[in-house]
TrEMBL record:
Name used for this protein in its record: Arginine ABC transporter permease protein ArtM
Membrane topology, as annotated: Multi-pass membrane protein
Organism, scientific name: Halomonas salina
Stretches of the chain forming a coiled coil according to its record: none
Predominant location: membrane
Location in or out of the cell: Cell inner membrane; Cell membrane
Domain ABC transmembrane type-1: 19-220
Record keywords, A-Z: Amino-acid transport, Cell inner membrane, Cell membrane, Membrane, Transmembrane, Transmembrane helix, Transport
InterPro entries: AA_ABC_transptr_permease_3TM (IPR010065), ArtM/GltK/GlnP/TcyL/YhdX-like (IPR043429), MetI-like (IPR000515), MetI-like_sf (IPR035906)
Entry similarity comment: Belongs to the binding-protein-dependent transport system permease family. HisMQ subfamily.
Transmembrane segments: 20-41, 53-76, 158-182, 202-220
Superkingdom assignment: Bacteria
Length: 249
């Protein structure tokens, strides 16, 4: 095994850039995807019929097509289509629209929104209506009932599943190497091409992803434990058995 190339600043720069882009893709896609998931779930449950049908169609398409195909569609399809629209390349948003990071984050956000939206829809539907009625009885507005009661109770029910979705998202990030975005896998491919080493760069990337998965799992486990209603109540002072004793007068 030859890992002497790790001492080369040229390759170190590639690895650092790939690691940073991987973390940014994970963070942006997770936050945006979960926000989209809430909107999709509410559209399915409480939205008008056209919006509900649109949300259902969105989840069917995103869940029924491969993630790599979606990534190619947005980057090579939508991206190239935007290039041909007059005035787009001269606009202020063109640097964003030609960046592969944008299409990677967009694809992952939509994917997380579709999968997690379906999970949240089931969790929201499983919350007993009496809990929402109790909130309205206390004078809460519909938004307060949703934000303080309904949504937290739904997240409490599906939090372990959402944790799994975040781990799957992390494992999906290497797909962006196919659209010329510098991530960890793309950095490994460059190192393999220039050093003619096959196993060492891949082993290093696999180790980094394994470490990131372990850290992400531990962080999300802590979130599960400290989320309201998820942590089991513990008796600080356990009850002791009291023996029968004669009463003193």
């Amino acid at each position: 095994m030859d890992f002497s190339w790790l001492q080369d600043p040229f390759y170190q720069e590639y690895l650092i850039e790939g690691f940073v882009n991987t973390l940014w893709l994970l963070a942006v896609s997770a936050v945006g995807g979960l926000a989209l998931a809430v909107a999709v779930a509410m559209a399915r449950l409480k939205g008008p019929r056209p919006l509900a049908v649109l949300a259902k169609g969105f989840t069917v398409v995103m869940r029924g097509t491969p993630l790599l195909v979606q990534l190619f569609f947005f980057y090579y399809g939508v991206g190239r289509l935007l290039e041909g629209i007059p005035g787009v390349q001269d606009s202020m948003i063109w640097p964003l629209l030609r960046d592969p990071f944008f299409y990677g984050a967009l694809t992952f956000t939509l994917s997380v929104g579709a999968y997690s939206g379906e999970v949240l829809r089931g969790a929201l539907a499983s919350v007993p209506p009496g809990e929402r009625e109790a909130g309205r009885a206390f004078g809460m507005t519909p938004f307060q009932v949703f934000a303080r009661l309904w949504l937290p109770r739904a997240i409490q029910r599906c939090l372990p599943t959402l944790t799994g979705e975040m781990i799957l998202l992390l494992k999906s990030v290497p797909l962006v190497s196919t659209i010329a975005l510098m991530d960890l896998l793309q950095a490994a491919n460059i190192i393999r091409d220039e050093t003619f080493l096959v196993y060492e760069p891949l082993m290093l990337i696999a180790g980094i992803y394994l470490a990131m998965t372990v850290v992400l799992t531990l962080v999300l486990r802590q979130v599960e434990r400290h989320f309201p209603g998820m942590q089991p109540t513990r008796r600080r002072f356990p009850l002791r058995r009291v023996e029968n004793a004669p009463c003193k007068h």
